[in-house]
Design a protein that fits this description.
With about 170 residues, the chain is an alpha+beta fold. About 35% of the residues lie in helices and about 30% in strands. Strands 2-1-5-4-3 form a five-stranded antiparallel beta sheet, with helices on both faces. A two-stranded antiparallel sheet has the order 6-7. The longest helix is centred in the middle third of the chain and has 23 residues, at about 105-125. The protein is elongated and about 80 Å long. The termini are far apart.
Length: about 170
């Protein structure tokens, strides 16, 4: 019981037909409905059609294949719009045990990171400066598109090769 109380994630036992058999939530505001309501209903009744269909397919795949299934879905709950990752494993022949984690913060960080990467790519694709990233062995890891105008070699021709391969032999200190 202490382990359950310490668990920040949601924990469900669901029957093959989607009925909630057990519900644990350290943070009830992350549930789609109150615990007592969920225990009297099914996934199809408690969730919107999209997430419900994802859940029912995951339950079927888990029970028919016997292995773990991981799904991600977004849901409006009392705490607001949240994104979840659920790990689903067989509990017995006709039910699954699910551990559901709120991954909203991680998803927001990933979106922000992708946006920053797009911004950086836009900047480096349009800059005139010749910039390269080279690892400690001299292998080119990144090169701006301006390399082609300055050197004649495009970034795909440079990346993955030793920078020394592009130097005149007289310029390489051996």
């Amino acid at each position: 019981r202490a382990l359950l109380e310490a668990l920040p994630d949601l924990l469900f036992v669901l029957a093959r037909d989607g009925r909630y058999l057990a519900v644990h939530a350290a943070r009830p505001e992350a549930l789609a409905a109150p615990r007592e309501t969920l225990l009297k209903t099914t996934v199809q009744e408690a969730l919107p059609p999209g997430p419900a269909a994802v859940w029912m397919e995951a339950i079927r795949r888990c029970l028919d294949g016997g292995g773990p299934v991981v799904i991600e879905y977004a849901l409006d709950v009392p705490a607001g719009r949240r994104e979840f990752e659920a790990r689903i494993v067989p509990h017995d022949a006709d039910s699954v045990l699910t551990l559901v984690r709120d991954v909203t913060d991680r998803a927001e960080w990933e979106r922000a990171l992708h946006e920053r990467e797009r911004e950086l790519k836009r900047l480096t694709d349009n800059m005139l400066d010749v910039i390269a990233e080279v690892d400690l062995k001299g292998v080119v890891k990144f090169a701006t598109p301006s390399h082609e105008a300055a050197t004649g070699w495009s970034p795909p021709e440079l990346i993955g090769h030793s920078a020394f391969d592009f130097m005149h032999p007289d310029d390489v200190d051996r």
